[in-house]
Specification:
single chain, 422 residues, alpha/beta, D-Maltodextrin-Binding Protein, domain 2, five-stranded mixed sheet, three-stranded mixed sheet, 18 helices
């Protein structure tokens, strides 16, 4: 379907040209000897295909620019990007995580200031509140593609088979484990980042205070760390949560796990395989117990686009970024795969395509938007891989009796403070 869409777009472009986007490509491209820029992103095969199709359309519209693509899966992507940014060899245009702004640009100079490229970027497609996510020290470092949160999805057929209703809190998963685990089914499974975010949510719900401050400082005590590690082990010991190292996304599709937690932007990847097999995944939403002191759940830009601070071709890079985030051509290819678009022009395009605003990502995004009042802006430190790895390391050492709870929580606290430079 995406290949057909791309072909139709290319034909349309050749006949009519690009319309509705604030970029120099609306007029005849300047005659130059040609400029090569680079562009990097991560994702699955579907994302790679439509993004490359979009880049092809951009190059047809801008024959004076050649784009060199760099892409891959998420695993290992951040580490490779870190090496590239530290050595100033990153691509000209980058898909980035929201958390990378505080990591690589704490003073706003780590990425190009997009305000200086406003003529090419069509910033009028964004509200000031939307732009705030990308502003560091008065410099616009990145533009949001869509907003994102993490939600729980469940296999309705499995829960109904065991006579269970939609899960609303961790207590429901404990009850599910009692009837599912004898059949080798785990009520819940997720990647390590989601486990950490779930533990943070539960801590904030039960303690009424945050794990991290807005400037990334660790606020918990050794006793608090012990509470988080105790819950993690309890979920494993009671077979509520499948061990992280045994988790695979496909296990939600084949019924080995009855529920999962993932980003809204990944809802199709997680739920699609179950649906393809005739299953019926649905949104359980946010797990919030009664009388919770706070919701403990967060929202952020799904992903963002930025331009390297060291690019030699800022204006050409801005033309590509603008195409990726604002153009009707790219919006028609991407639809809601990365979430509901923030850009007004992109959203207008998608809204006018029959059945485009459908699918698991759209349903999850709609649920997120309907419950925005329950969500706080995520602290970037919560997504720092080093912090998450520390939690898993000491969680595992406690679970497998390599350390006592007191030893594990004390050591975890020391290493986390070091990781956040406290």
């Amino acid at each position: 379907m995406r290949k057909i869409t791309a072909a139709l777009l290319c034909t349309s472009i050749l006949l009519t040209g690009c319309t509705g986007v604030a970029t120099p490509s609306e007029s005849v491209p300047s005659q130059t000897t040609g400029t090569e820029i680079s562009f990097s992103w991560w994702g699955n095969d579907v994302r790679h295909e439509y993004t490359m199709n979009g880049v092809d359309v951009f190059q047809n519209l801008n024959p004076d620019i050649t784009v060199k693509n760099h892409y891959g899966v998420w695993q290992g992507y951040e580490k490779r990007t870190n090496v590239a940014i530290e050595s100033h060899t990153e691509t000209d245009v980058m898909q980035i995580n929201y958390a990378w702004l505080s990591t690589y640009s704490p003073d706003g100079t780590g990425f190009y200031d997009l305000y200086s490229l406003s003529d090419e970027l069509g910033l009028n497609n964004f509200d000031e509140d939307d732009l705030q996510y990308g502003i560091i020290e008065g410099k616009l470092n990145a533009l949001p593609i869509a907003f994102n949160t993490y939600e729980v999805f469940y296999n309705t057929d499995l829960w109904e088979k065991y006579g269970l209703e939609k899960p609303d809190s961790l207590d429901d998963f404990y009850e599910a484990a009692k009837v599912m685990s004898p059949d080798g089914i785990y009520p819940l499974g997720m990647v390590k980042k989601m486990v950490f975010l779930l533990m943070c949510a539960n801590y904030e719900q039960t303690h009424g205070t945050s794990v991290f401050s807005s400037d990334g400082q660790l606020l918990i005590s050794e006793s608090d760390a012990a509470d988080m590690l105790s819950l993690y082990r309890d979920l494993i010991d009671n077979k509520v949560l499948i061990p992280v190292d045994d988790f695979e996304r496909s296990k939600f599709g084949d019924g080995t796990i009855a529920s999962t937690m993932c980003w809204v932007s990944d809802a199709g990847n997680y739920c699609g395989s179950l649906a393809d097999k005739g299953g019926n995944p649905d949104i359980a939403g946010f797990l919030i117990p009664e009388n919770a002191a706070s919701t403990g759940w967060y929202i952020k830009p799904a992903t963002m686009y930025a331009i390297s601070a060291y690019t030699e071709h800022p204006h050409e890079s801005a033309r590509l970024l603008n195409f990726l985030i604002n153009s009707p051509e790219m919006a028609a290819l991407q639809l809601s795969e990365k979430g509901v678009p923030v850009s007004r022009s992109a959203l207008d395009t998608v809204n006018n395509i029959p059945d485009a605003m459908s699918g698991f990502e759209y349903a999850a995004s709609r649920y997120m938007n309907e419950n925005r009042q329950q969500l706080s802006i995520i602290k970037p430190i919560m997504e720092k891989e080093e912090v998450i790895d520390i939690f898993k390391k000491y969680g595992d050492e406690y679970i497998y009796d390599q350390l006592t709870l007191k030893e594990a929580s004390a050591a975890m606290l020391v290493e986390m403070k070091s990781a956040v430079h406290q």
